[in-house]
Amino acid sequence: MQRPAAAATAAAATGDTAAAQQPPQPQPLPPYYQLSLPVYSLATVGRDGGSPTMNLVTYASPISLKPRCYALGLYEGTLSRENMLATEYGVLQLLGEHHAPLFQLLGRTSGRDVDKLAALEAAGVPVTRREPDGIPLLADSCGWIELRFSSEPANYGDHEVVICEVTGWHTPPAEELAAAGRRPLYTGHLRELGLLP
């Protein structure tokens, strides 16, 4: 298979100027872009209980049943990553489709620049603070999972990957979820809304 840049160079070398001047064709995305993955929000606090924040997470996957463990990707430079590396735990909240309007706030802004809890409150999104650690929780999530480090983080480019043990969880009663019309948010839904490629 000849790559577009190589094809243009070859065309120019053979004098095919029309082919050489054509704009490069858009390349198909990798196959995994066809997948629809759960969308989470990772809630964390700093070592002293300060700097509470949340961000958007799609790089999270269960990897074992006994013990229950997750692999979690932490994006470099984020306050959530800094908090979790300091405390070695956080709460992974399963977002619902009704949280899609929070994509920009949770996924495209930094907790260093924006007080996300204040922004959520201003938007009318109910947030509670868990006792005794003060971790902020979305009161209308589809459930949450407490994760604690069970391995040292490993760097993979723009993400730190950590293996975490599930040390607690909460799932709202099915009738509560049904009555509120809460359905888990997936990346496929974000693509339909034009928020992801």
UniProtKB/TrEMBL annotation:
<feature type="domain" description="Flavin reductase like">
    <location>
        <begin position="37"/>
        <end position="176"/>
    </location>
</feature>
<dbReference type="InterPro" id="IPR012349">
    <property type="entry name" value="Split_barrel_FMN-bd"/>
</dbReference>
<feature type="compositionally biased region" description="Low complexity">
    <location>
        <begin position="1"/>
        <end position="22"/>
    </location>
</feature>
<feature type="region of interest" description="Disordered">
    <location>
        <begin position="1"/>
        <end position="30"/>
    </location>
</feature>
<dbReference type="InterPro" id="IPR002563">
    <property type="entry name" value="Flavin_Rdtase-like_dom"/>
</dbReference>
<dbReference type="Pfam" id="PF01613">
    <property type="entry name" value="Flavin_Reduct"/>
</dbReference>
<protein>
    <submittedName>
        <fullName>Flavin reductase</fullName>
    </submittedName>
</protein>
<dbReference type="GO" id="GO:0010181">
    <property type="term" value="F:FMN binding"/>
</dbReference>
